[in-house]
Amino acid sequence: MALADDKRNQPVRNPAPAAGRERGGWLAKIAPGVRKLVAKRETPENLWVKCPDTGEMIYRSDLEAALWVTPAGRHMRIRPALRFAYTFDHARFTALRLPTAPDDPLQFTVGKSYADALAAARKATGENDAMAAAVGEIGGVATVVLVQDFAFIGGSMGTATGEAFLAAADEALKRKAPFVAFTASGGMRMQEGTLSLMQMARTTVAIGRLRAAHLPYVVVMTDPTTAGVTASYAMLGDVQLAEPGALIGFTGRRVIEQTIRETLPPGFQTAEFQVERGMVDRVVTRQELPAVLGSILRTLLSGRDRLFAA
Q: At what angle do helices 193-212 and 159-175 cross, to 10 degrees?
Protein backbone atom coordinates (compact mmCIF):
# COMPACT_ATOMS: atom_id res chain seq x y z
CA MET A 1 0.00 0.00 0.00
CA ALA A 2 2.79 2.42 0.80
CA LEU A 3 4.27 1.81 -2.59
CA ALA A 4 0.93 2.54 -4.20
CA ASP A 5 0.54 5.78 -2.27
CA ASP A 6 4.00 6.92 -3.30
CA LYS A 7 3.09 6.49 -6.97
CA ARG A 8 -0.14 8.43 -6.60
CA ASN A 9 1.61 11.35 -4.84
CA GLN A 10 4.30 11.80 -7.55
CA PRO A 11 3.96 14.81 -9.91
CA VAL A 12 1.93 14.04 -13.01
CA ARG A 13 3.88 14.54 -16.30
CA ASN A 14 2.18 15.48 -19.58
CA PRO A 15 1.93 12.49 -21.84
CA ALA A 16 4.20 12.44 -24.92
CA PRO A 17 2.50 13.49 -28.16
CA ALA A 18 0.99 10.67 -30.10
CA ALA A 19 2.96 9.46 -33.09
CA GLY A 20 2.48 11.80 -36.02
CA ARG A 21 0.94 14.60 -33.92
CA GLU A 22 2.72 18.01 -34.29
CA ARG A 23 3.03 20.63 -31.62
CA GLY A 24 2.10 24.29 -32.09
CA GLY A 25 -1.70 24.43 -31.90
CA TRP A 26 -3.82 25.62 -34.85
CA LEU A 27 -0.82 27.05 -36.77
CA ALA A 28 0.82 23.64 -36.82
CA LYS A 29 -2.28 22.23 -38.51
CA ILE A 30 -2.05 24.59 -41.46
CA ALA A 31 1.78 24.81 -41.63
CA PRO A 32 2.21 21.92 -44.09
CA GLY A 33 -0.24 23.60 -46.49
CA VAL A 34 1.52 26.94 -46.14
CA ARG A 35 4.87 25.36 -46.87
CA LYS A 36 3.50 23.73 -50.02
CA LEU A 37 1.96 27.01 -51.17
CA VAL A 38 5.21 28.91 -50.69
CA ALA A 39 7.21 26.19 -52.43
CA LYS A 40 5.00 26.48 -55.52
CA ARG A 41 5.58 30.23 -55.66
CA GLU A 42 9.37 30.06 -55.36
CA THR A 43 11.05 31.77 -58.31
CA PRO A 44 12.83 29.33 -60.65
CA GLU A 45 16.56 29.99 -60.96
CA ASN A 46 16.32 30.60 -64.71
CA LEU A 47 13.24 32.84 -64.73
CA TRP A 48 15.36 35.97 -65.27
CA VAL A 49 18.34 36.50 -67.57
CA LYS A 50 20.86 39.30 -67.10
CA CYS A 51 21.75 41.42 -70.12
CA PRO A 52 25.56 41.34 -70.43
CA ASP A 53 25.63 44.92 -71.77
CA THR A 54 23.34 46.83 -69.42
CA GLY A 55 22.94 44.48 -66.46
CA GLU A 56 19.16 44.64 -66.91
CA MET A 57 17.23 41.60 -65.67
CA ILE A 58 15.02 40.32 -68.49
CA TYR A 59 12.07 38.02 -68.06
CA ARG A 60 13.09 34.77 -69.74
CA SER A 61 9.85 34.31 -71.68
CA ASP A 62 10.20 37.84 -73.09
CA LEU A 63 13.75 37.07 -74.18
CA GLU A 64 12.65 33.84 -75.84
CA ALA A 65 9.89 35.71 -77.69
CA ALA A 66 12.55 38.14 -78.94
CA LEU A 67 14.69 35.25 -80.27
CA TRP A 68 17.21 35.80 -77.48
CA VAL A 69 17.93 39.38 -78.48
CA THR A 70 18.01 41.77 -75.51
CA PRO A 71 16.33 45.22 -75.51
CA ALA A 72 19.85 46.67 -75.81
CA GLY A 73 20.30 44.74 -79.07
CA ARG A 74 22.71 42.10 -77.79
CA HIS A 75 22.33 38.92 -79.84
CA MET A 76 22.95 36.29 -77.22
CA ARG A 77 24.56 32.99 -78.10
CA ILE A 78 22.09 30.21 -78.90
CA ARG A 79 22.39 26.48 -79.38
CA PRO A 80 21.90 24.64 -82.73
CA ALA A 81 18.30 23.52 -82.06
CA LEU A 82 17.15 27.12 -81.59
CA ARG A 83 19.23 28.30 -84.54
CA PHE A 84 17.54 25.76 -86.80
CA ALA A 85 14.09 26.66 -85.49
CA TYR A 86 14.68 30.38 -86.02
CA THR A 87 16.14 29.91 -89.51
CA PHE A 88 14.02 27.31 -91.29
CA ASP A 89 10.50 28.03 -92.54
CA HIS A 90 7.88 27.25 -89.86
CA ALA A 91 10.72 25.86 -87.68
CA ARG A 92 10.56 22.60 -89.65
CA PHE A 93 13.78 20.75 -90.35
CA THR A 94 15.36 17.30 -90.40
CA ALA A 95 18.58 16.79 -88.48
CA LEU A 96 21.37 15.12 -90.42
CA ARG A 97 23.33 12.20 -89.02
CA LEU A 98 26.96 13.25 -88.90
CA PRO A 99 30.03 10.98 -88.90
CA THR A 100 32.13 10.49 -85.82
CA ALA A 101 35.89 10.59 -85.47
CA PRO A 102 38.34 8.90 -83.08
CA ASP A 103 38.45 10.59 -79.68
CA ASP A 104 41.75 11.91 -78.32
CA PRO A 105 43.99 10.66 -81.18
CA LEU A 106 47.11 12.16 -79.56
CA GLN A 107 46.33 11.06 -75.97
CA PHE A 108 46.64 14.74 -75.03
CA THR A 109 46.81 15.76 -71.37
CA VAL A 110 47.58 19.14 -69.81
CA GLY A 111 46.11 19.40 -66.33
CA LYS A 112 42.95 17.56 -67.44
CA SER A 113 42.96 14.93 -70.15
CA TYR A 114 41.33 15.70 -73.48
CA ALA A 115 39.17 12.58 -73.08
CA ASP A 116 37.78 13.98 -69.83
CA ALA A 117 37.15 17.37 -71.45
CA LEU A 118 35.20 15.70 -74.26
CA ALA A 119 33.15 13.66 -71.79
CA ALA A 120 32.32 16.76 -69.76
CA ALA A 121 31.31 18.75 -72.88
CA ARG A 122 29.10 15.91 -74.11
CA LYS A 123 27.38 15.63 -70.76
CA ALA A 124 26.82 19.40 -70.54
CA THR A 125 25.54 19.91 -74.10
CA GLY A 126 24.03 16.57 -75.04
CA GLU A 127 25.93 16.76 -78.34
CA ASN A 128 28.74 14.58 -79.66
CA ASP A 129 30.81 17.54 -80.85
CA ALA A 130 30.70 21.19 -81.86
CA MET A 131 28.85 20.86 -85.17
CA ALA A 132 25.20 20.14 -85.97
CA ALA A 133 23.54 20.05 -89.38
CA ALA A 134 19.99 19.93 -90.69
CA VAL A 135 18.04 20.27 -93.92
CA GLY A 136 14.87 22.25 -94.47
CA GLU A 137 13.54 25.23 -96.40
CA ILE A 138 14.55 28.87 -96.06
CA GLY A 139 12.21 31.17 -97.93
CA GLY A 140 10.95 28.13 -99.83
CA VAL A 141 14.46 27.05 -100.86
CA ALA A 142 15.63 23.59 -99.76
CA THR A 143 18.88 24.26 -97.90
CA VAL A 144 21.51 22.43 -95.86
CA VAL A 145 22.45 24.39 -92.73
CA LEU A 146 25.48 23.78 -90.53
CA VAL A 147 25.67 25.33 -87.04
CA GLN A 148 28.77 25.59 -84.87
CA ASP A 149 28.06 25.27 -81.15
CA PHE A 150 30.22 27.55 -78.99
CA ALA A 151 28.97 25.76 -75.87
CA PHE A 152 31.00 22.69 -76.88
CA ILE A 153 34.63 23.48 -75.96
CA GLY A 154 34.31 26.97 -77.38
CA GLY A 155 33.15 25.70 -80.78
CA SER A 156 36.74 24.66 -81.43
CA MET A 157 37.41 22.74 -84.60
CA GLY A 158 38.95 19.30 -84.53
CA THR A 159 38.69 16.18 -86.62
CA ALA A 160 35.04 15.52 -85.74
CA THR A 161 33.94 19.04 -86.67
CA GLY A 162 35.88 18.81 -89.92
CA GLU A 163 34.14 15.52 -90.74
CA ALA A 164 30.78 17.14 -89.96
CA PHE A 165 31.49 20.05 -92.30
CA LEU A 166 32.45 17.69 -95.13
CA ALA A 167 29.38 15.51 -94.56
CA ALA A 168 27.06 18.52 -94.64
CA ALA A 169 28.72 19.83 -97.82
CA ASP A 170 28.34 16.39 -99.44
CA GLU A 171 24.65 16.42 -98.50
CA ALA A 172 24.25 19.79 -100.23
CA LEU A 173 25.97 18.42 -103.33
CA LYS A 174 23.74 15.33 -103.33
CA ARG A 175 20.59 17.41 -103.00
CA LYS A 176 21.88 20.16 -105.35
CA ALA A 177 20.99 22.55 -102.55
CA PRO A 178 22.62 25.70 -101.14
CA PHE A 179 24.84 25.39 -98.09
CA VAL A 180 24.62 27.87 -95.18
CA ALA A 181 27.16 27.80 -92.34
CA PHE A 182 26.67 29.57 -89.00
CA THR A 183 30.10 30.04 -87.45
CA ALA A 184 30.89 30.47 -83.74
CA SER A 185 34.33 29.42 -82.61
CA GLY A 186 37.43 30.24 -80.63
CA GLY A 187 39.49 28.55 -83.34
CA MET A 188 41.20 25.23 -83.81
CA ARG A 189 41.28 22.56 -81.10
CA MET A 190 44.79 22.53 -79.68
CA GLN A 191 44.36 19.06 -78.15
CA GLU A 192 44.42 17.58 -81.66
CA GLY A 193 47.48 19.49 -82.88
CA THR A 194 48.17 19.26 -86.60
CA LEU A 195 45.10 17.08 -87.12
CA SER A 196 43.01 20.09 -86.16
CA LEU A 197 44.89 22.42 -88.51
CA MET A 198 44.35 19.96 -91.38
CA GLN A 199 40.61 20.68 -91.20
CA MET A 200 41.24 24.18 -92.55
CA ALA A 201 42.44 22.65 -95.83
CA ARG A 202 39.78 19.94 -95.91
CA THR A 203 36.89 22.40 -95.46
CA THR A 204 38.38 24.66 -98.13
CA VAL A 205 38.42 21.75 -100.58
CA ALA A 206 34.76 20.98 -99.76
CA ILE A 207 33.81 24.59 -100.49
CA GLY A 208 35.68 24.30 -103.79
CA ARG A 209 33.48 21.35 -104.73
CA LEU A 210 30.35 23.39 -103.98
CA ARG A 211 31.68 26.20 -106.12
CA ALA A 212 32.45 23.81 -108.99
CA ALA A 213 28.81 22.69 -108.86
CA HIS A 214 27.70 26.37 -108.80
CA LEU A 215 25.88 25.83 -105.50
CA PRO A 216 25.59 28.84 -103.17
CA TYR A 217 27.70 28.85 -100.01
CA VAL A 218 26.63 31.54 -97.54
CA VAL A 219 28.32 32.23 -94.19
CA VAL A 220 26.59 33.81 -91.19
CA MET A 221 29.19 34.82 -88.62
CA THR A 222 27.97 34.88 -85.03
CA ASP A 223 29.69 35.79 -81.79
CA PRO A 224 32.55 34.93 -81.73
CA THR A 225 34.16 33.87 -85.02
CA THR A 226 37.92 33.86 -84.62
CA ALA A 227 41.33 32.29 -85.34
CA GLY A 228 41.59 29.32 -87.73
CA VAL A 229 37.88 29.26 -88.46
CA THR A 230 38.08 32.87 -89.63
CA ALA A 231 41.18 31.95 -91.63
CA SER A 232 39.33 29.19 -93.49
CA TYR A 233 35.66 28.46 -94.20
CA ALA A 234 34.24 31.49 -92.37
CA MET A 235 35.77 33.82 -94.97
CA LEU A 236 35.03 31.81 -98.11
CA GLY A 237 31.31 32.42 -98.55
CA ASP A 238 29.76 33.75 -101.73
CA VAL A 239 28.04 36.16 -99.33
CA GLN A 240 29.31 37.03 -95.84
CA LEU A 241 26.65 37.96 -93.29
CA ALA A 242 27.03 38.63 -89.57
CA GLU A 243 24.85 39.17 -86.52
CA PRO A 244 25.04 42.59 -84.86
CA GLY A 245 27.91 43.01 -82.42
CA ALA A 246 29.54 39.69 -83.27
CA LEU A 247 33.29 39.50 -82.59
CA ILE A 248 35.01 38.64 -85.88
CA GLY A 249 38.77 38.42 -86.22
CA PHE A 250 41.84 36.26 -86.09
CA THR A 251 43.86 37.25 -83.02
CA GLY A 252 42.49 38.92 -79.91
CA ARG A 253 42.66 42.65 -79.30
CA ARG A 254 45.14 42.43 -76.40
CA VAL A 255 47.63 40.34 -78.38
CA ILE A 256 47.49 42.72 -81.34
CA GLU A 257 47.98 45.80 -79.15
CA GLN A 258 50.96 44.23 -77.41
CA THR A 259 52.47 43.25 -80.76
CA ILE A 260 52.07 46.55 -82.62
CA ARG A 261 52.26 48.71 -79.46
CA GLU A 262 49.29 50.75 -80.57
CA THR A 263 45.81 51.31 -79.12
CA LEU A 264 43.17 49.87 -81.41
CA PRO A 265 40.05 51.91 -82.28
CA PRO A 266 36.71 51.45 -80.46
CA GLY A 267 34.57 48.65 -81.82
CA PHE A 268 37.59 46.91 -83.33
CA GLN A 269 36.72 43.46 -84.73
CA THR A 270 32.96 43.87 -84.29
CA ALA A 271 30.68 42.93 -87.18
CA GLU A 272 29.95 46.61 -87.84
CA PHE A 273 33.67 47.41 -87.93
CA GLN A 274 34.27 44.60 -90.44
CA VAL A 275 31.45 45.78 -92.73
CA GLU A 276 33.15 49.17 -93.04
CA ARG A 277 36.34 47.42 -94.13
CA GLY A 278 34.77 44.97 -96.58
CA MET A 279 35.30 41.81 -94.54
CA VAL A 280 31.54 41.36 -94.05
CA ASP A 281 28.89 42.14 -96.67
CA ARG A 282 26.02 42.95 -94.34
CA VAL A 283 25.03 42.90 -90.67
CA VAL A 284 21.59 41.33 -90.27
CA THR A 285 19.47 41.03 -87.14
CA ARG A 286 18.26 37.63 -86.06
CA GLN A 287 14.63 38.54 -86.80
CA GLU A 288 15.46 39.62 -90.36
CA LEU A 289 17.87 36.80 -91.15
CA PRO A 290 15.48 34.16 -92.58
CA ALA A 291 14.01 36.63 -95.08
CA VAL A 292 17.45 37.95 -96.06
CA LEU A 293 18.85 34.45 -96.47
CA GLY A 294 15.85 33.37 -98.54
CA SER A 295 16.28 36.34 -100.87
CA ILE A 296 20.02 35.73 -101.28
CA LEU A 297 19.60 32.00 -101.95
CA ARG A 298 16.86 32.56 -104.55
CA THR A 299 18.99 35.15 -106.32
CA LEU A 300 22.09 32.94 -106.39
CA LEU A 301 20.12 29.92 -107.58
CA SER A 302 18.49 31.91 -110.36
CA GLY A 303 21.96 32.75 -111.65
CA ARG A 304 22.84 29.04 -111.50
CA ASP A 305 19.70 28.15 -113.46
CA ARG A 306 20.50 30.71 -116.14
CA LEU A 307 24.05 29.36 -116.39
CA PHE A 308 22.89 25.80 -116.99
CA ALA A 309 20.15 26.94 -119.37
CA ALA A 310 22.62 28.82 -121.57
A: 10
Segment 251-258 long-range contacts (CB within 8 Å, at least 24 positions apart): 251/226, 251/227, 252/226
Give the long-range contacts of residues 123-130, CB within 8 A, separation 24 or more. 124/151, 125/79, 125/149, 125/151, 125/152, 127/80, 127/152, 128/98, 128/100, 128/160, 129/101, 129/158, 129/160, 129/161, 129/164, 130/155, 130/156, 130/157, 130/158, 130/160, 130/161, 130/185
User: Alpha helix locations (H) across 99-225?
Assistant: 114-125, 159-175, 193-212
**CATH number of the domain at 77-309, please?**
3.90.226.10
Predicted TM-score (pTM) of the model is 0.83
Q: How confident is the model at residue 22 (pLDDT cuts 50, 70, 90)?
A: very low
Domain ranges of the chain: 46-76, 77-309
Is pLDDT at 23 greater than 80 in this prediction? no
- Which of 27-36, 202-211, 301-310 is predicted least confidently? 27-36
